[in-house]
Write a structure and sequence with these properties.
The protein is an alpha/beta fold. Helix content is about 25%, strand content about 15%. Helix 5 packs parallel to helix 6. The protein starts with a helix and ends with a helix. The structure holds 2-acetamido-2-deoxy-6-O-sulfo-beta-D-galactopyranose (NG6) and calcium ion.
């Protein structure tokens, strides 16, 4: 009898301990990262006319940041900052990457490495765009260094962008489905003899290029760069979203019993916009709108996967975008013509490539079911802070060069915020401080000729008070002289 009681007691104690253990299990981290999605593209932000119910569920059930920034108005530098917690302008290589070498040093600390040190399984699925290899890449052998060498245990990636060659997926360094008898050759300098291009063979195109994008043709779309061979490995543009989604879901399912970090890096709504036919016409805004609806659906599917596996209560989801929106980014795809009343930039000025607000002020959401109470936060936060903040949340002592620990903000929507932030766009920088913005003079077009985006360039200093003037329409640089000098001094100090 005594033995029976004691073994029942031991069993209960064991179950109790398991129960406790489950509670203290570090949370899974899922970063959902969109490509060129604007502040006003998400309906929870109440700006545009497009409906994004699945992103809204995260925004309305978590912290919806209305003053959240990407580190840069273009992709590679933003992603660099997200991965390292370092300002991209400190690294001269951190500019839009086209077939270039890996820009993260393999000795550098990164977000996934920090998580690995805390026994996380780590993965990236989707767009990479941080460079690969050391020099010229041979796609017919394992490509290294790449995501695996900077902290990802598993990597299923598109190397640069959907509009750049090679149009193949790479899994842990190897081109997927490559036939050794048909080697894949890539060049960004010259075409391979006899290969059609968008420039020479417009009759082969199903999507016409508007500017750039007139090199090799794959699936009726001409791209940036030249490619020959490797045909069995070419991706299907129309299936890309489903393909990445499948990989993301598989990864979550396979790693449900261990803490994991998933960087789910979607390709939408970057050009070329190729939503699956089942989304065609759904937005009434052409492929750009349809691609956003497709991305929203994918996010809903990832949510469902976490829910079905019972992981939602132990998963911190952060959703954001790598830079602001652009309509015409190089193809005739009706993005401008069918926009209607939709406002991708929200009320903000500029867009992708711009130093004005819409270049980097993007949807920024943290969600953790049962842990984060739904709220809206106007506090200033940058993606550069995710390294330190996630480190704090999972009890890692590591910090980055430029990030802040804003974990309280991420978990509650209140608490300390950033006092200042250096914004970056195509190598130019500006300062945001306590809702004032200082943009130094820059030569160059005020409005980009092709994309029609206001870039932020002007002959004189620009100074804006976002509390009074979120649209940045009233330059105070000649009237608020004291403020101007103060901001200049801070800018100089931070840029040192
Ligand atoms: C630009 C491309 C643009 C886009 C961008 C990268 C031209 C004319 N424009 O050079 O289409 O690919 O690079 O976008 O080629 S990003 O979101 O990855 O930074
Ligand atoms: Ca981008």
């Amino acid at each position: 009898m005594y033995h029976r009681l004691s073994s029942i007691f031991s069993l209960l104690l064991f179950l109790f301990l398991i129960g406790c253990q489950k509670k203290t299990t570090p949370p899974n981290i899922v970063i959902i990262y969109l490509d060129d999605l604007g502040y006003g593209d998400v309906s929870a932000y109440q700006q545009g006319t497009l409906q994004t119910p699945n992103i809204d569920r995260l925004a309305n059930g978590g912290v919806k940041f209305t003053n959240g920034h990407a580190a840069s108005a273009t992709c590679t530098p933003s992603r660099y900052a997200l991965m390292t917690g370092q300002y991209p302008w400190r690294n001269t290589q951190a500019k839009i990457s086209t077939g270039a070498a890996l820009i993260i040093d393999t000795l550098q600390m990164t977000l996934p490495k920090m998580l690995q040190q805390k026994n996380y399984q780590t993965a990236i699925v989707g767009k990479w765009h941080l460079g690969l290899g050391l020099d010229t890449i041979n796609y017919n052998q394992r490509i290294s260094p790449g995501p695996n060498e900077v902290g990802f245990d598993y990597a299923y990636i598109m190397p640069d962008t959907q509009d750049r060659v090679p149009t193949v997926y790479i899994e842990n360094g190897n081109v997927v489905n490559l036939d050794a008898n048909d080697p894949l050759l890539v060049s960004f300098k010259q075409n391979f003899e006899g290969e059609p291009t968008g420039w020479d063979n417009p009759e082969l195109l199903t999507t016409k290029w508007h500017h750039g994008h007139y090199n090799s043709i794959v699936n009726g779309i001409s791209r940036i760069g030249f490619m020959k061979g490797g045909k069995s490995a070419y991706w299907s543009d129309l299936d890309m979203a489903d393909h990445f989604l499948e990989k993301a879901k598989d990864y979550i399912t396979q790693n449900q019993n261990t803490p994991f970090f998933l960087f789910y890096s979607l390709q939408q709504p970057h050009v070329p916009r190729t939503p699956h036919p089942r989304f065609e016409g759904q937005s009434g805004m052409g492929p750009r709108g349809d691609a956003i609806l497709e991305a929203d659906w994918c996010i809903g599917e990832v949510y469902k996967t976490l829910e079905t596996l019972g992981l939602l209560e132990n998963t911190l989801i952060v959703l954001s975008s790598d830079n602001g929106p652009v309509l015409n980014d190089g193809y005739y795809d009706d993005a401008v013509e069918k926009l209607g009343n939709h406002t991708p930039s929200g009320i903000f000025r500029g867009g992708k490539y711009s130093l004005f607000e819409a270049g980097t002020r993007v949807p920024f959401i943290s969600y953790w079911k049962g842990r984060i109470v739904s709220t809206t936060s106007e506090k200033l936060i940058s993606q550069i802070d995710l390294f330190n903040s996630i480190a704090a949340i999972i009890d890692s002592p590591l910090t980055s060069q430029d990030g802040l620990n804003l974990s309280e903000l991420i978990l509650t929507g209140s608490g300390p915020e950033r006092e200042n932030l250096i914004l970056e766009a195509s190598g130019r920088t500006a300062l945001k401080q306590n809702n004032w913005v200082l943009i130094p003079p820059y030569s160059g077009n005020a409005v980009s000729k092709y994309t029609n985006v206001e870039l932020g360039n002007a002959d004189q200093y620009q100074l804006y008070d976002l509390n009074e003037d979120p649209q940045q329409s009233n330059n105070l640089a000649t009237t608020q002289l004291e403020k101007l000098e103060l901001m200049k001094a801070t800018y100089q100090k931070l840029k040192k």
